[in-house]
Each structure stands twice: as structure tokens, then as C-alpha cells.
Amino acid sequence: MKIAILSRNPKLYSTRRLVEAAEKRGHIARVIDPLRCYMNIAAHNPEIHYKGGKLEHFDAVIPRIGASVTFYATSVLRQFEMMGVFPLNESVAVSRSKDKLRSLQLLSRKGIGMPATGFAHSPDDTQDLLKLVGGAPVVIKLLEGTQGVGVVLAETRKAAESVIDAFRGLRAHFLVQEFIKEAGGSDIRCFVIGDKVVAAMKRTAKEGEFRSNLHRGGTAEIIRITPEERRMAVRAAKIVGLNVAGVDLLRSDKGPLIMEVNSSPGLEGIETVTGKDIAGQIIAFIEKNAQPHKTRTKGKG
Ligand code: ADP
């Protein structure tokens, strides 16, 4: 097969591993920078052009879309879909997962457990917003943040009010979430491929920090997850519409709670911690499932 990997940087660990795994299994892989693609929209015959010429035919496309290029890169992915190329994750599902509010709304509609969450832009009544999620301590998150940037723990009502006032001044979207103290600074990343959790790791924040992001000095270890956690992670990925997802859970007194569903989960941490060939499993999934024009939504909706 010919597999396109939509990624801005061929040197990234995840991109390199996907190329390596595809080649090892006898396929041809090419890294395509989505921002350098240009496309015709109007013609009956949708095409993608790249570096001065028409892009060759691919059987499958693997989107590795970063937060900063979501809008354009998902349009490029949609164009691949219109050309009948099988997407590992389809554009509609990628857009859903990139929009934290949209994905949390989808999950809550299906009854998936999550921390009590409120979201706001310019609330007039901060106290009422805090009451909505059960009062301090709360976690306040800027929607545009990734890797723990813009995620703040406000331990008292006063602190929460100050942070919310500051965010309001920024004219940013944010969410206010019940702080799951009993998670003890740890979360669980479940790596979902198809209808299985193929690997899981527990990430723990460094001393004095509540955010467990590896980029913030957190550490990771292999963990056995419960059948309930397994079911929940697979269901969350399915609801968002992703074939491959990194589903982040918190362990609470009320059971597992979903924090986030990522459509381009990194491979470095999970492969290093578990010693598993996740890239190889992703390519195997494509081998089994790739068929021309096989998307649920055809880029609609
Ligand atoms: P990002 O998407 O920027 O990584 P997250 O929402 O995943 O932001 O938050 C970063 C980290 O903060 C999480 O990995 C988790 O360890 C911690 N965290 C986030 N929300 C909560 C919460 N409601 N209760 C307890 N810890 C949380």
C-alpha cells in the first residue's frame, strides 16, 4: 500500500516510527506537510497539489495534526477523503476531538462519566459558574492550551475568582472543572486502536505539581487498567468517531472519569514505557480496514 502521513515534521518520533513501521511491513510511506498542500475544490475530480505537481494516489492517510494547524490540516484531510483515500481517523472526528467543548458535550450526551465541568466565555456571575461545578477547589483550563499550558488549579474560591476574572479579560474560552483530588496527580493514558486498548500508562505529576503531562516533568509507568476503564476508553473513542485515540482518564472515588480524547496521540511515551510496537499495530489496523471511500461521514457534518 501507499500511505501518506500528514505531518509538519518528518523528524518527530511519532512520524518517524510510522514511516519505519509502514516500510517494515512492506508499504511505501510518504510524509506530507499539510500546510504545503493546495487543492481544487470546485472540480468534479478533487485533487491535491504539492510542491508544484499533482499528488500521487495513496491508499491510506494518517493524520498527525497539531493544535496550531487544525483548521487547514483537517481541510486537507477532508480533501483526501473526497478523493477516496482511507483516513486512519476521519476529518469530522479529528475536528470534534480538537474542540474540547464539542467532544465533552458528545461524551456527556452518551452518559460517559467526566468531572463536573462548566464552560464559559464572559460570565457575568463568577460565583454562579463556580457553584455549577460544586465550588473550589477547581481546575480552570484555557481551551486553546495543550500540554498543560493554561491549566490552573484554584484551591480557594478567591483564587478561582481571580483566575476567572483574568481569563475573562483575555476574552478566551475556558472551562471550569471539579478538581479530582483523589487522582493524586496521576492520570491514565489509554491508547485505543479500533475496539481495543492496546496499551496504557499512568502518568504522575512531579512533586508539588498536579498536572501529570510528561512535558511538565511528569513520569510514566506501565499500568493494568480495569475492564470498566477499558470499556470506557473504547466507547469514548467510538463516540468521537476515532479509530485511533489517546483517551485520558482520572481515577476518582466515583469511578473512572474521562478528561480528554486525543486524535494524534504521541507514540514516544507509550512505546517507551510499554515496550510495545504501537506504530506497527496502527499500520496493521490500516492493512485490515483500508478500503477506498470508507469513511462514516465522507467529510460531511
Ligand atoms: P492538556 O490537554 O493541556 O494536557 P489537561 O486537561 O489534560 O490539559 O490537563 C493537564 C493535567 O492536569 C492532566 O494530565 C491531569 O494530570 C491534570 N488535571 C486536569 N484536569 C484535572 C481535574 N479536573 N482534576 C485533577 N487533575 C486534573
Can you give keywords for this protein?
single chain, 301 residues, alpha+beta, Dna Ligase, domain 1, D-amino Acid Aminotransferase, Chain A, domain 1, 4-stranded parallel beta sheet, 9 helices, binds adenosine-5'-diphosphate
Which secondary structure elements does this structure contain, and how are they paired or packed?
Elements: E1 2-6, H1 13-24, E2 28-32, E3 37-40, E4 47-50, E5 53-54, E6 60-63, H2 70-82, E7 86-87, H3 91-98, H4 100-109, E8 117-120, H5 126-132, E9 138-142, E10 151-154, H6 157-169, E11 174-178, E12 186-193, E13 196-204, E14 219-222, H7 227-240, E15 244-252, E16 255-262, H8 268-274, H9 278-289
Helix pairs in contact: 1-9, 2-3
Bound molecules: adenosine-5'-diphosphate (ADP).
Ions, cofactors and other bound molecules: adenosine-5'-diphosphate
The sequence of SSEs as H and E is EHEEEEEHEHHEHEEHEEEEHEEHH
Question: How many β-strands, per DSSP?
Answer: 16
Q: Could you name the ranges where pLDDT drops below 50 across 5 or more consecutive residues?
A: none
Fourth CATH level, the homologous superfamily of the largest domain: ATP-grasp fold, B domain
Helix content: 25-40%
Q: What's the arrangement of strands in the largest beta sheet? A: 14-13-12-15-16
